[in-house]
Structures are given as C-alpha cells and as structure tokens.
Amino acid sequence: MTNGRTAKVPSAALPDLECACATIRRAARLVTLLYAQEIGPDLEPSQFALLFALSERPGASQTPLGRALGLDKTTLSRNLRLMMNNGWIKPAKSDDRRERGYALTPTGHALLARAKPRWERAQAKMRAAMGSSAWENMFRVMGDIVEAARKQAGAREV
Questions:
Q1: CB-side exposure of 106: number of CA atoms within 13 Å?
Q2: Chain mean position to CA 154
Q3: More confident residue, 117 or 42
Q4: Cα separation of 128 and 122, whole Å?
C-alpha cells in the first residue's frame, strides 16, 4: 500500500498462473528457444529429436515416433514430409507392416553429426544453469508428468 491506497501492479509483473499446462508450456517454449539458438537455423529442435530417434531406431514408423516424442500426427507428418523433401530421411522397412518406416539418409546422418555438438552445448548450458541436482530431478519429475498426462488422456506407452 502506498498512502493508504493499493499500489497498481505493472502489467509486466503479472503473477504466475498456477496451472500445470501454462507452466510446462512456458518452460518448453523458453528451453526450445535456447536449443534453437544453439543448434542453429538449419534444424529445429523437434527435427533434431526426430533425426536422433531415427538414428537410434532406423525403420521406426509414425506411431512409435509420435508416442516417443509426444508429437501429434499432423505435426509429425509435416516434419517427416519436410525432412524427406530436404533429403534427410527416406522410406524404410518398418516393424509394423501397416505403416511406412523412416531412416536417415547420408545427408541426414551428416546433419545430425554437425548438430550434435551444438545440442550438447545447449545441454551443458541448461545443466550448468540448473545445477546437477535440479537437472536430475527435472528428468524424474518430467517422467512423472508424462506418465500422469498419458494416464489421464488415455494414451498408450511406447
């Protein structure tokens, strides 16, 4: 209070909304911005994650990729199509014969190899800013969040 009146709160100092969705989305946007700045303009963080997933599981189809990365079908299809058009991935045999699988092309492998040190730099910056204990706790808590959301949304695990 100032002179018996309630002080006005400047709009820039709005209170945090105590909402799991708003808080997680804000954190995701800010972390994505950091990773995008580090990885560079050639590759979005979500595309890096897709390339990395396909390097680990060549032939993975859309369903397991979408579940593993938490991407909806439309976003995943758009990214896969763009990555195919860029020559980063190609169709491949899938474990599920009902769906097309994907694998990295030599161009995709080279792009991932160039991006990985920049991704590691983003990882190191986040870990340093958070501290090791908070970094490790983040993965535990985020795992709990993912599981709770999957259960409530009725989503199946990968």
A1: 0
A2: 21
A3: 117
A4: 10
DSSP codes, 56-85: HSTTEEHHHHHHHHT--HHHHHHHHHHHHH
Alpha-carbon distance of 48 to 148, in angstroms, equals 26
Is residue 22 within 8 Å of residue 83, measured between CB atoms?
Answer: no
d(CA 31, CA 38): 11
Sheet holding 101-104, edge to edge: 60-61, 101-104, 89-92
Which two tokens mark 140?
């535990």
Q: Could you give the count of Cα atoms lying within 13 Å of 131 in the half-sphere of its Cβ? A: 3
- Alpha carbons 67 and 32: distance in angstroms, whole number: 19
- Summarised one tens digit per residue, pLDDT across range 57-94 is 999 999 899 988 988 889 999 999 999 999 999 999 88
CA distance linking residue 149 with residue 70, whole number of Å: 11
Q: How far apart are CA 143 and CA 56, in angstroms?
A: 20
Q: Compute, in degrees rounded to 10, the torsion defined by CA atoms 124, 125, 131, 132.
A: -10
User: Are 121 and 45 contacting, i.e. CB atoms less than 8 angstroms apart?
Assistant: no
CA 105, chain centre distance (Å): 22
Nearest one of 90, 102, 32 to 61, comparing CA atoms: 102
